[in-house]
């Protein structure tokens, strides 16, 4: 914006010089009073009575000629000019010489002033409108404050200048006048020109449409404000002379919404003298002078002027304004309502995220309390992520992680969101400290209970620690194990089963034992059946919930959308094949109360063939090419960490011999995201097919067009992207297929492309042994002998517990027992099922 001001000024000054034309021949005019001669060399084309001249000392001067009707008019002009110059003093463009001339019976008043590098507000405004450039709000306010101060000083003497107008107020590129501001070490000041013929004699000029019958200084200030902030050119406004005040206001709308500036602007139009003592002026001066004491005086009644401060472009000023907003801690709800109603809340949050919080850590709790006021829907969470909220989380965990407002924010933000925030908290050591505090702090204890399942691969160990501390009942502990995302369960299966067995082996009251058995049953049901059931149905494009015979096995679907228009959760196949696909939807992701697809439509599913997704049996070895680095040979982990933007591709093509590709997969790879970085901005794609899956918003882009929305992804997620032999592109999310297969144009030179934006990203690239299609069914889930042994012990321990509870028969216990028996039969454990019967 500072560049814009300089550009506009220079263009206006250049435009002013373009109006100068050389006289056919110089003309010399002598001053009878100053014993001086002036040689006129040039004239202004738009002002035929204004010339450029040189005095005897070769100094460049402006030579202004005002025709007068008679000598009385000459004396009137001299009197007015003398009065104005006396009042304005150094703030006016002073004359070097003033004299009158009688030529051929006509009187002329001559004023000679020094040439200065300056442009009028009218000229400045004209260039603004022609170029479409804008200047910073602080420059507009600074000019307005200077004019109001000048007029206030004059009016305290019961006088009027009547020379404040857009074509008589000049911005000077020097410090010769009333100081305004400094831009790039260049001082700017303000001067008043009293040489306008309308000012001295009331003669019409180029802005005659702006004058009113009872012209006054405040009306002139309002027109100066309009020249900088108005929506149309000054000479395009209607004649103000015959309009009432209401019509004048209606004819002069400001360009941008700024309630404080609007209020002062209208007070000036009304010639309201209360303007000089209005509190907004003092607060604005605090902004411009970066004076915290003046800003601090504002309160809840001054939200309009604080609103104005947010529109300034100077970062130091905006930081002070944000500090003041956050200091209104006892009125956050009212502040939020104001910001939201004026579409300022996101701008406010954005400015907060730019602050250096190390100097004002005391305001962190205020910030999170303010953030609490805004309902955190999926769109707002996505916006927060894009603004860099995770960067502030890093700052908060290093400065003040254990305040209640921050805990509350984390719970709100993680609901139906990615797990990146949880990864940041865990890696930074916050959870370790929170766990230490949980025994004596209800806030910390509640936080652990609500979040312990959502730390990715760390959750099993964390829950084991929590169990050892006896913070919660065994039922809550097992429920915590159930809530761990299924692919993290499978990764730490032995650890989870061991803890479950340890809990089962203890003695409990009858009612509590029933709850322990019920939650254990939920856990083993999900381990045995959920991954395979969901994976298979996604693979063939079928809704799991519609399969009545299998619904008892389904505790939750980890890949659900939510249709905002219909208020129902939907699985990927139902979304792809119903009217919901044209509705506004978002992904539920983690920590959601919705577990199943609620689609009631009986629709024809577009069924896929699992054979279409068959992997190639042989694949060569690859070399990765990280940007700004050397080739890296493929290894077991293929781990990459970014310190700045990084793009990773391969030296080799994903498909070496297209003739060897049958009807299945042509190309596919996965990315396991250990850390998503401060902006969660990771993109996976395939070069040569122009397909990309964006983590920050879940967009699946094909040929630069949005093909469909998929889940956003972040830390602890594994995502994949591939192309079928029939040139249909697809993506996977934590092992599950997104049911949108999209036509693409793939050439025969396909390569991976993974883009990590910003620092702090850590990923593992997988070109084989994928999560996609890896889930087993039933007892095959336990691929390790150790897992099978522990699982067998769990089943036998459960049977013993059921038999002990036989004499306490009740309807709920019978339902749990029947579920358990069905599972035993389904995994071909008939011998154990028989023991349960007896």
Automatic annotation (TrEMBL):
Sample GO molecular function, one term: zinc ion binding
Keyword tags: Coiled coil, Metal-binding, Zinc, Zinc-finger
Protein name per Swiss-Prot or TrEMBL: B box-type domain-containing protein
Coiled-coil segments: 799-826
Domain of life: Eukaryota
Span of domain B box-type: 543-588
InterPro entries: B30.2/SPRY_sf, Znf_B-box
Origin species: Stentor coeruleus
Gene3D superfamilies, per database record: 2.60.120.920, Classic Zinc Finger (3.30.160.60)
